[in-house]
Amino acid sequence: MNSKVGAVSSNGVYAFTKPNRESIRLLAGLGVEGDVHAGTTVKHRSRVAQDPTQPNLRQVHLIHQELFTELREAGFEVGAGDLGENITTVGLDLLALPTGTLLRLGDEAVVEVTGLRNPCLQIDAFRPGLLKRVVHRDDEGSLVRKAGIMGIVVSGGVVRPGDPIEAEPPHGPHRPLDRV
Questions:
Q1: pTM over 0.90
Q2: Which residues face 21 on adjacent strands?
Q3: pLDDT tens column, 69-84
Q4: Which residues form the MOSC domain (predicted)?
Q5: Bridge pairing between strands 4-9 and 87-90
């Protein structure tokens, strides 16, 4: 299956969910135009409290639509934008991508993958019990995070549902994703 954008979402105010849009504009070095998490330094409240001068490695949040199918099968009604992501993807194993992968979205936009989203307790406030579905320990005891990935905008451009996505892994040794 060809990878594509399933939905795009943004919100100009702090809220857990983000409304779906007809399109979003990615701004190089900043993130999603008009989104509360756009900027060169951290915008997520927990990160700002730790050190507001940290670089913003979480400018764009992407989640694979296949996660929503898995969650629905477990009894959780969750859709595009509900978990605060900006871009919902279809047909791309986001969690298997190495750090530094370039995602070409549509005609112009490029996002560099920086790491895994580290979901917080707000997920359980949205849907009780959901956090255990998106963060759990595997059979070896390793922590598994499935709530999407984060990235920074390398090249700006408009992104719309239906746009193709091309993943270009980095050169050299691949580093697995870690939380950012």
A1: yes
A2: 8
A3: 999 999 999 999 999 9
A4: 18-168
A5: antiparallel
